[in-house]
Amino acid sequence: MNVGMSSLSWDVRKARIVVLVVAAVAFVSKMALAANTRGPADVRFFWGFARAIARTDPVRIYAEQMPWLPVYNHPPLASWMLLGMEWLAQQGVPWRPLIRFPACLADFITVLLVFAIVRRRAARPRTAVFCAVGAALCPVLVATSGYHGNTDSVAVMFAFAAAYLLTDRRMPLAAGLAAALCVSVKLIPVVAVPLLFAAAWRAGRRALLRFTAGSAALFLAVWGPVIATVPGGLKANVLEYAGGNFSFWGVIRFARWAGVPESYVALVRGDGHFLIVAAIMAVGVWLAWRRPADAPLAVAVTLGLLLLLSTASGVQYLAWPAAGLFVVGLWQGLAYGAVVGGVAASVYSGQRPVHWTDTEMAFGALGWAVLAVCVASGIHRALSGPAPGPAVPLLPEARRTAPQAPPGKASPVDDPVPRTQTPTAPSAN
């Protein structure tokens, strides 16, 4: 028994080392790309935002008139981040790699999260290694984080951190903080927040209270001053932002190819997109309520659905499901990364992220179809297997009063995945 446990522990340790090394190499490579390329227009726009925030403050920036810049559609935490970066730039830190550093670092952490999430659900450590290495080397993330930057990868990282802390580490307070952080950096993971509340609810009253307390306290601290000071600007710039009028990807592109009247397109891109977001949230809640132990998989599905049904186009948006699809399965992550990564690399290499060629849009349509298959497989995986039993409450009393397990065996309360909710293991095929 001791020999077997020692061998298993050694395999996990080696797996962690491999993942850490590959993730570190990927991080350094992305930063090298960031340091040696000019990047898209967003690099310059973020510098303008940072300078404007330094002149005013991170709260009143939403009321600031900036006719020379696009709409400032970033949540309040991004404003504070830009203020800090502007100070570092004034101290001599080069702006181009600096603005892309958060996304590259977030990818590094997300790779470790993918490994931890998959390892707790896969039969063999090597499955988790393959998925984590695939996420580290994903061409989509190399292009969007190392070249483009923006904050999409940071928001995704906090979303998966929240799911991991809640279901695998049984730390609902920390999970609530991470949930608040994910929507305070960029609003896209808002589709995952309701399912996190559903998973916390299924985990027991105390878990729900702690998750709610952590998320509410941090949300009020970050968003409260802006809501109290410039609610109109926040609503118009962030909450009602519908994206640019570009349509080189997704349902709007298909609608225009099909000759759908622009009045209908405008309806879908206007108030209609709120209905789409609500439907995605409902799917996430349904999956998390049915299988609360698989909340990370539900997060991956909702982020994939968000991009699949998005009415806005942006090359950096392609990062939303990239890492999460490796939580769904290895082939899903590889298929999406290869097809869509090729499109992103082609667009960025031509320095024209808002102008796609017909060939790039055709391969983008193929990538959209690949994403649809991957999301469908994620939903099927979440619904397959035995029906879940009652959730295990995350109560400290359970830890104090649980019987001690014999040496060499794990106590039920130390098992990060409740046995009554058999998790689905991502495929290594």
Q: Can you describe what's shown?
A:
- With 429 residues, the chain is mainly alpha-helical.
- 68% of the residues lie in helices and 0% in strands.
- The chain is globular, with a radius of gyration of 22 Å.
What's this entry about, in short?
This protein has helices spanning 2-36, 41-55, 76-90, 95-119, 125-136, 139-148, 152-167, 172-185, 193-202, 205-229, 231-239, 250-257, 262-269, 272-290, 295-308, 324-328, 330-349, 358-383, 396-401.
Rg from C-alpha positions?
A: 22 Å
Mean pLDDT: 87
Question: Which class best fits the helix and strand makeup?
Answer: mainly alpha
Low-confidence stretches: 1-5, 387-405, 407-425
Amino- and carboxy-terminal Cα gap = 30 Å
Q: Which range best describes the helical content: under 10%, 10-25%, 25-40%, 40-55%, 55-70% or over 70%?
A: 55-70%
Q: Can you count the beta strands?
A: 0
Silhouette: globular
| Number of helices, where a helix is a run of at least 4 consecutive DSSP H or I residues | 19
Strand content: under 5%
Q: Please provide the ordered H/E string of secondary-structure elements.
A: HHHHHHHHHHHHHHHHHHH
Characterize the largest beta sheet: strand count, sense, and whether it forms a barrel: none
Keywords: Membrane, Transmembrane, Transmembrane helix
Protein name: DUF2029 domain-containing protein
